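FAQ

Q: What does a record look like?
A: Structure on top, sequence underneath. For example:
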């Protein structure tokens, strides 16, 4: 009886050892893919930021620092260069000291990526500011305009 018990124990250890070795030698392709961490938004380069009356054919039209109160919308056009990885920014619209809105934008990894956000100003006169902030709230770029 002791011989059978010893044989069973040796057999079990052999099987377990073989399974452990096989698992260690498994090809890397069976391991789950690890997704690269997104690049920090501060690595973004804003090549161009324009405040305009509209955007046509992916370009700003009516770039100005002052807009009439009759202007329905104002656009913040952004051009990014050499985006390392998909990330997001927020365009924050401020009138005087009051935040009037914010628009989250997803920035894709391209050598040149253009996008824009708009704000309906509806005759709200005064000094406006537009800030582009990264995910941590750091201002990457800002611009000012006036509605008269």
């Amino acid at each position: 009886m002791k011989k059978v018990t010893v044989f069973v124990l040796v057999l079990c250890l052999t099987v377990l050892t073989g399974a452990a070795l096989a698992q260690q030698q498994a090809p890397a392709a069976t391991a789950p893919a690890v997704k690269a961490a997104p690049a920090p938004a501060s690595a973004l380069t804003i090549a161009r930021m324009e405040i305009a009356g509209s955007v046509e054919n992916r370009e700003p039209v009516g770039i100005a620092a002052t807009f009439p109160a009759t202007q329905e919308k104002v656009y913040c056009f952004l051009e990014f260069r050499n985006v390392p990885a998909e990330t997001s920014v927020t365009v924050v619209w401020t009138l005087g000291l009051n935040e009037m809105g914010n628009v989250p934008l997803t920035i894709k990894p391209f050598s040149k990526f253009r996008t824009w956000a708009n704000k309906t100003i509806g005759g709200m006169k005064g000094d406006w500011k537009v800030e582009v902030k990264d995910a941590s709230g750091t201002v990457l770029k800002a611009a000012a305009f006036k509605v008269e």
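Q: Is there anything notable about this one?
A: Residues 4-13, 19-24, 26-37 have pLDDT under 50 and may be disordered.
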